[in-house]
Write a structure and sequence with these properties.
Length: 386
């Protein structure tokens, strides 16, 4: 059987670097930096072998196919994974009021979702005192099998709209994309309230209030979740136990009040995690700032394009006819990219997904020469070599 690490390459998709490998079943596996040290755990036989997966999977609450499953033990260690099917291109089954507020909501592609989660973990936008804790994004697995069109549940028009948002990212409408996250040990908000002695009406009121507070904190950090639910708010095992033990006070009359106060304090202090990112997106203000920031950084880097910078592992320096280039693989199209200079930071600006399908103006009737403004607000002229 082919070993996972026998053929691997580093690829960059939407700013996230993956170790890409072909799996023993002929599929594709993309490991993030969090998963790469555990590459052997992600060999297909160690988590997705049919008998193992069916015997050990636990279906999680939700409208999509989401499972918790452990890997087999490797060197005495097993990983708890959350495996979910990406619903990119499918209809969004959310409530009417949510649809009215997020009428353009679309399920993220796997690449968009991981990129946004990584960005949210870094927390560079918004108040520094607010930290959004998330699951660790580990891997994207693309099985080799293709579905029939009627099986996919995907709309070609939706896929085309997503391609327009992230030009150059190739999505196969007939393939499954499985996103793999690390399991967070703890309890979600409704599970915590199961240990608080109060009536259903009061519980519902607090669930809505706490959900709103968590959503507001996300908004201050520059993000929105179109289907935020109390089930998406996770407290650690230690904090869940603290809340439960607070309810065992001798003065049982007021115990539930102290439990609720502790819950609100944990939310205020950011002692919780948010899960489920398939409808995660940036706020308009944040998205505009990201674009403007990238343009400003681009101008600085272009000015210093011949000053050597540190080189990421997935890029190389080469020289052709005396001209220095930064060279790398363009995973989104399967092509190769050479960027003039020695500043490795420039490479991402010229990835095809940043400019290949943005609106363009043809500058010649005889040649393929086009003017476009890239997704980073960079004015670019590109042409096909003859």
């Amino acid at each position: 059987m082919q070993n996972l690490t026998s053929k691997k390459s580093l690829v960059n998709v939407l700013g996230v670097v993956y170790v890409h490998t072909k799996t023993s079943d002929g599929g594709d596996l993309y490991l993030t930096r969090f998963a790469e040290p555990y590459a052997e755990h992600f060999e297909i036989d160690n988590w997705y072998e049919r008998n193992w997966f069916n015997e050990h999977k636990i279906r999680l609450i939700g409208t999509s196919s989401v499972y918790r499953v452990p890997t087999k033990e490797i060197n005495g260690e097993s990983l708890d994974l959350v495996v979910k099917n990406c619903r990119v291109g499918e209809d969004v089954p959310i409530e009417t009021h949510t649809l009215q507020e997020f009428c353009d909501a679309e399920f993220n592609s796997p690449w968009e979702e991981f990129a946004l989660v990584m960005e949210m973990q870094e927390g560079l936008y918004g108040p520094r005192e607010i930290k959004v804790k998330t699951q660790q994004p580990l891997a994207i697995y693309v099985p080799p099998e293709k579905m029939q069109p009627w099986q996919s549940g995907r709309s070609r028009s939706k896929i085309n709209r997503i391609r327009a948002k992230t030009p150059g990212i190739d999505l196969d409408i007939l393939k499954q994309y499985k996103l793999i996250y690390k399991w967070i040990k703890g309890k979600n908000l409704p599970e915590v309230f199961e240990r608080i002695d109060m009536d259903d009406e009061e519980i519902t009121r607090h669930l809505k209030a706490i959900n709103y507070q968590a959503l507001s904190a996300l908004g201050r950090k520059g993000y929105l979740v179109a289907d935020m639910k109390p089930e998406h708010i996770i407290f650690s095992e230690a904090d869940a136990l603290r809340i439960e033990e607070t309810g065992r006070s001798q003065n049982n009359i007021d115990a539930y009040k102290r439990q609720v106060e502790l819950l609100y304090q944990l939310i205020k202090d950011g002692h919780y995690s948010v899960v489920d990112y398939e409808l995660l997106l940036r706020t308009v203000e944040h998205d505009n700032e990201v674009k403007n920031s990238r343009r400003h950084h681009y101008l600085d880097d272009q000015r210093d394009r011949f000053k050597p910078t540190s080189l990421p592992a997935h890029l190389k320096r080469i020289e052709i006819f005396g001209v220095p280039y930064i060279y790398g693989h363009a995973e989104s199209t399967g092509g190769h990219l050479w960027v003039v200079g020695e500043n490795a930071r420039l490479f991402d600006y010229f990835l095809p997904e940043r400019w290949r399908k943005t609106p363009s103006l043809k500058l010649s009737d005889k040649k393929e020469v086009f003017y476009t403004i890239t997704k980073d607000n960079i004015h670019l002229v590109w042409k096909t070599s003859r």
